[in-house]
Amino acid sequence: MAEARTEKSRVWLWIAAGVVVIAVFFTAEYFLRDRLTVRVARVERETLHNTISTNGRVEPIVNYQYYSPINTTVKAVYAQAGDTVPKGKLLIVLDDVAARAQVAAAESAVRTAQANLDAVTHNGTQAERQASAAEVEQDRLARDQAQHDLEALTQLAATGAAAPGEVTAARERLQTAQASLDAAEQSAHHRYSTDDLNRAQAALADAQAGLEAARHVEAQTSYAAPIAGTIYTLDAAASGYAAAGNLLLEMADLHHERVRAYFDEPDVGRLAVAQPVSIRWEAKPGREWQGHVSRLPVAVVAYTTRNVGETLIDLDDPNAGFLPATNVTVTVTISSEANALSMPREALHEQNGKYFVYKVVDGELKRTPITIGSATITEVPILSGLQEGDMVVTSSSTGQPLQEGMPIKVVQ
Question: What angle do CA 50, 51, 57 make, to 5 degrees?
């Protein structure tokens, strides 16, 4: 009996030892199994800025460009590119011989057209009016003579001294003389029609427009500075040839510049007037200029290979020191949220339209559903599902996919 109890005790002892070995094995396997190395980030509170970046170009707010109005030569140049000049300074003088000849021809055309209009308005030139008056007087004398002859023949016919045929012929001569007089008087007072007057007035207006254009061209054969500003383009040299339409000079007040930014079509709807803007220029790394949106796009246009909306940005610093046509990078702050709970965008996962993260819990990955706000390029605002201080996995160091329950080891 005692031996049976001893044997039974040995069995239970062996069973207990086996359980301990198994427990030790699984515990060791748990702690010794490979752990996935991951990078993590802490959920924190910070100010989130939602931004859009694009390229832009600096331009003067008011730009003055001067072109050669005709094919001519440059007589003199009184400035150089880069000069800051006072208002009124003479800059360029062109050879104006051809322009002055055009003005003279246009003035002659105006005088001719004015004389023609005067003739139409006053029923002819002085010579024509004098000739008409003489013709009227001659026809009146002829009519009076015919009238006198008719009266005399009528009296003679009453006494039988003249034949009735003579009276009839005299009456016809009177009618002819009266018709000639009426025609002469009509011509003397109504030589031109309303259409003739309209044509003469139109011809004078055309001649005057031609004269104005010729004088405008003549005025463009010399250029003086319209403002105090800087010459930043100069393509003219004394005795050089200047073809009609060639750009000779550009100048502006470089203390008053703006940026023309080119936003891709999908971003245009997010822009608003007065949004803050930061501007960077590669020529001066480390510096940043501030501005604001002053005018929104009015159309979408083709720009290189893109469809963009051209947006005007005013600089807050009038002495920014940009060169005209400088290419810059523009970043517009669309919205800003202070004290927002956020995490890096790399930690965000999506499946079937729902968002989740892998949170670090007791050395393992725990898939955690979350709701988010409007994400920026680098950060995601957290509305629910996480708390400040939670650790979320951004990536694995080996590129291995993340899974629920995976043991992990955090690396920097």
Answer: 170
Collapsing DSSP to helix, strand or coil, 115 comes out as: helix
Q: Is the pTM of this model over 0.85?
A: no
> What residues are paired with 395 via a beta bridge?
39
| 29 contact partners, CB below 8 Å, separation of at least 6 | none
Burial of 274 from C-beta contacts in 10 A (0-12 / 13-18 / 19+): exposed
Tokens 């005018």 sit at which residue? 295
More confident residue, 195 or 310: 310
CA 380 to chain centroid = 36
Which CA distances in Å does 144 have to 39, 149, 176, 178, 181?
127, 9, 12, 9, 10
Order of strands across the sheet that contains 63-67: 63-67, 247-252, 229-234, 84-85
Closest CA to 122 of 208, 184, 188, 195: 188
Please give the C-alpha separations between residue 227 and each of 79, 204, 251, 253, in angstroms, as whole numbers: 14, 37, 9, 8
User: How many CB atoms are located within 10 Å of the residue 378 CB?
Assistant: 12
Q: Does residue 80 have a pLDDT over 50?
A: yes
CA–CA separation, 229 vs 357, rounded Å? Answer: 59
As a whole number of angstroms, the distance between CA 18 and CA 70 comes to: 109
3-state secondary structure at position 347: helix
Tokens of 64: 């003055």
Strand partners, 384: 371
pLDDT (tens digit, 9 = 90+) per residue, 124-178? 666 666 666 667 667 677 777 878 777 777 777 777 777 777 778 878 887 886 7
CA distances from 90 to 79, 100, 341 (A): 8, 20, 63
Domains of the chain: residue spans and CATH: 36-47+339-410 (2.40.420.20), 52-61+253-336 (2.40.30.170), 63-95+221-251 (2.40.50.100)
Lowest mean pLDDT among 16-30, 127-141, 179-193, 396-410: 16-30
Q: What is the DSSP letter of 407?
A: B
410 near 373, Cβ under 8 Å?
Answer: no
